[in-house]
């Protein structure tokens, strides 16, 4: 007599894997274009084009993340490898929470920076709703906050990638296979 043992989920659902790698691609683009566009001279026409493209891709990041969170909350997820330590599991949980929070807050602060300075956010030329009022004399604070959040997110992504490498090559707990 054989016992029925339901097969454990070994990978994230396909849609979550696609959304994960789409987010990685979108945020990589944002991390690259952000510093380039702000370093261009105010009169450089590429600056305006890059700002508009950066904003459009930031809106796409928000949309993808909303979809990703919706799918993730409704999906069965694969278990973590059994050889992970308790502290690693807690760190992974909180690391993911902070990653998600920064992926939401960073683009929204960028949107706020535009709106607070009286600039619209457009999705490839299509004007979007103004979420924040124009504030005369707001200064550089919103842009500075957006930059700090972006670099914090980038640092956390680097830690995330380092953890995957550690688990794959040093612990022999191939967490990467769950998301590819």
What does this structure look like?
The protein is mainly alpha-helical. It has one domain (14-178): Fumarate Reductase Cytochrome B subunit (Up-down Bundle), CATH 1.20.950. Helix content is 64%, strand content 2%. The chain has helices spanning 14-39, 45-73, 86-116, 141-170, and strands at residues 122-123, 126-127. A two-stranded antiparallel ribbon has the order 1-2. The longest helix is centred in the middle third of the chain and has 31 residues, at 86-116. The protein is elongated, with a radius of gyration of 20 Å. It starts with 13 loop residues before the first helix and ends in a 10-residue tail after the last helix. The relative contact order is 0.13. It is a multi-pass membrane protein. One of its GO terms (molecular function) is heme binding. The chain crosses the membrane at residues 12-33, 53-71, 91-112, 144-165.
């Amino acid at each position: 007599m054989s016992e029925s043992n339901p097969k454990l989920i070994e990978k994230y659902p396909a849609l979550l894997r696609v959304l994960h790698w789409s987010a990685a691609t979108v945020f990589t683009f944002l991390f690259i274009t952000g510093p380039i566009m702000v370093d261009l001279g105010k009169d450089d026409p590429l600056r305006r084009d890059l700002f508009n493209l950066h904003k459009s891709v930031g809106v796409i990041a928000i949309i993808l993340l909303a979809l990703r969170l919706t799918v993730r909350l409704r999906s069965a997820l694969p278990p973590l490898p059994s050889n992970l330590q308790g502290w690693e599991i807690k760190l992974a949980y909180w690391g993911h929470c902070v990653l998600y929070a920064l992926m939401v807050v960073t683009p929204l602060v960028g949107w706020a920076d535009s709106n607070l300075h009286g600039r619209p956010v457009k999705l490839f030329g299509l004007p979007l709703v103004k979420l924040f009022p124009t504030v005369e004399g707001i200064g550089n604070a919103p842009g500075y906050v957006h930059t700090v959040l972006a670099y914090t997110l980038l640092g956390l992504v680097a830690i995330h990638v380092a953890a995957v490498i550690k688990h794959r090559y040093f612990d022999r707990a191939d967490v990467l296979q769950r998301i590819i």
